[in-house]
Design brief:
Blueprint (H helix, E strand, L loop, with lengths): L1 H17 L14 H5 L2 E7 L18 H8 L2 E7 L5 H10 L26 H7 L3 E7 L19 H4 L3 E5 L11 E2 L2 E2 L9 E3 L29 E2 L2 E2 L3 E3 L11 H15 L5 E6 L21 H22 L6 E7 L42 E4 L7 E8 L3 H9 L14 H4 L10 E4 L3 E5 L2 E4 L25 E4 L15 H15 L3
Parallel strand pairs: 1-11, 1-12, 2-14, 3-4, 3-11
Antiparallel strand pairs: 2-13, 4-5, 5-6, 7-10, 8-9, 12-13, 15-16, 16-17, 17-18
Helix pairs in contact: 1-7, 7-8
Length: 514
Amino acid sequence: MKTNKLFLILAAGLFFSCNSSTKKTTSTDEPTEQHVLKPNFILLYVDDLGYADLSSYGAKGVETPNVDHMAKNGVLFTDAHSSAATCTPSRYSLLTGNYAFRNNAAILPGDAPLLIDTSIVTLPKMLQKAGYTTGVVGKWHLGLGYGKVDWNKPITPGPGEVGFDYSFLLPATGDRVPTVFMENDTVVNLSQDDPLTVSYEHKVGNRPLGTERPDLLKMKADPQHSQTIVNGISRIGYMGGGKSAEWKDEEFPFVFTEKAIQFIQDNKTTPFFLYFSFHDIHVPRAPNARFQGASEMGPRGDAIVQMDWVVGQINTLLEKEDLAKNTILIFTSDNGPVLDDGYMDKAVSMVGNHKPAGPYRGGKYSIFEGGTRVPMIVYWPGHIKPVKSSAMMNQVDIYASLAGLLNTPMGNKVLDSENHIDALLGKTENGRKIMIEEGFTLAIRDGQWKYIAPFTSGEIPAWMANKDIESGLQKQPQLYNLAEDKGEQKNLADQKPELVEQYANKLKIIMDKS
């Protein structure tokens, strides 16, 4: 029975892919000279994956053989960071080359307007100018349109205006409405006879809510996640209509993988950039039946195994299409880990001896190291030597590093991205000298030292108390020597006031940069 179910799911995924096409294709069967000179780029951007959530980084209770293969044969970084401890800010920094605080980027509701200024040169726009076809598949969560979106019409601006030739998206996240896929600028399979409406203010439509019908739920949720029920899971926000366009969470890995495969196959004879933005292992964690029980940690661990399977499918395709040696894969996560993030999915009770953030304090939402220190692996068969690198890296630098590799200019509004292509490819361990970390306040890393600015933006958000994660937010400055205290247990601010003043001034200089 499992085999039959899996076949139907794969068939559904293939149906999606057969009914779509990328905006740029080529009819030639042979790689162009330009393609030989320019490697393809695939960014595998996992959601909420902690520093130690891979077996190659010391995970317990879960195995990730496909990612481990990349780690064993590529560059494994031990001091790599997302730019922020939450998803929208990290994604903003990744695509713009600017720290998220410059645009007050924060976690967005599902109907927010597009966050990225369409007039700036983004990472995908820079690659387009360099001759690349660009695509994004998976979670977006950077806003769409100008606000007050009409989901029944083409929605712009969006990924196309940011620099992507092709997109297949979750508009926001799996725990927020609307629970539909979008291809390019249009909701997939939406019937004009059943228009889609979305509200984050009041109930729309006649779907039951998690607070009204808990008996319909596959897993219970906290009050924030207990609004409209879709596919047996309650979400944040209210949704009416659009029944024909609803997704099934358990089909995510197959649908997204087929879309990614289709994009690669459509563009295999020209240079391409694929931003594969996973939903796993973000909540709600609803792994496909094929992966249920594949770990010792329940749905969260099973979602990690599911993610690893997807990585294996992409690498298998690259080998099959003879693209592996001309494709640079960058594998990383948008922020640190979280166990209880709104759904009662046994992530806490089944974690066992596993420590998702490894030796680091905090996790998602936290200004401590666990908030932004994430796994990062760069894999380029035949071109880079296997190495474990201690270079300090930040995702904000992917933009400038790829531009440097291609000898292509960046936009004039890229303020924070630095070219560290040699470190990225494992040729040196000289990475960032200084960087900012974001997590409801700002921190600055300078080699072994970390300064955390006082939290002065009012009260710590009440909802953070339910996450069982140390936010790291304090009214007083904090200073840690990570060379001796990687767990950030001993605040040295009172003992070293001169360093506190020095780093506070450095932080101000970076913040005032324009």
